[in-house]
Write a structure and sequence with these properties.
One of its GO terms (molecular function) is peptide-methionine (R)-S-oxide reductase activity. It catalyses: L-methionyl-[protein] + [thioredoxin]-disulfide + H2O = L-methionyl-(R)-S-oxide-[protein] + [thioredoxin]-dithiol. It is an enzyme of class 1 (oxidoreductase). By secondary structure, this protein is mainly beta. The chain contains 2 helices and 9 strands; from the N terminus they run ααβββββββββ. The protein has a single domain, classed as Peptide methionine sulfoxide reductase (Metal Binding Protein, Guanine Nucleotide Exchange Factor, Chain A). The protein has a 6-stranded antiparallel beta sheet, with no helix packed on it. Strands 2-1-9 form a 3-stranded antiparallel beta sheet, with no helix packed on it. The longest helix has 7 residues. It is globular. The relative contact order is 0.26.
């Protein structure tokens, strides 16, 4: 069962660049607000198996659950579905000379990573949400 993320609209959490810079570290800002990418195999959640919910590091919105996380061996945390279809926005990304689909937090429109399909992973959706660890904050299940 593949979710259909909502379309892009005005963010619920809208801050100025100055406010985002005050809230985020320079590394977080570079990824979340400027669509950067952390180096592979360097993020804190790449191999994490802790049960819980992954929230947007910028605004705290629930994005992914540990039950949808899987080992893709790509260097970034991978999920086969968001926690809720309304949690993320998918947007065409033709940067860097390739066609990709960018994943944004629906609440604050922060960059999370990209989603890929048809790569042969044995997941229920055949999708890989390849997400920067620095875009997330894990809230462990109690």
């Amino acid at each position: 069962m593949t979710s259909t993320p909502r379309s892009e609209s005005s963010p619920e959490v809208a801050l100025s660049d100055e406010e985002w810079r005050a809230r985020l570290t320079p590394a977080e800002y570079a990824v979340l607000r400027e669509a950067g990418t952390e180096r592979p195999y360097t993020g804190e959640y790449t191999d994490t198996e802790t049960a819980g919910v992954y929230e947007c590091r910028a605004c705290g919105a629930a994005l992914f659950r540990s039950t949808e996380k899987f080992h893709s061996h790509c260097g970034w945390p991978s999920f086969f579905d968001p926690a809720d279809s309304d949690a993320v926005i998918l947007r065409s990304d033709d940067s860097l000379g390739m066609r990709r689909v960018e994943v944004l937090c629906a609440s604050c429109h922060s960059h999370l990573g990209h989603v890929f399909e048809g790569e042969g992973y044995s997941t229920p959706t055949d999708q890989r949400y390849c997400i920067n660890s620095i875009s997330l904050r894990l809230v462990p299940k109690e």
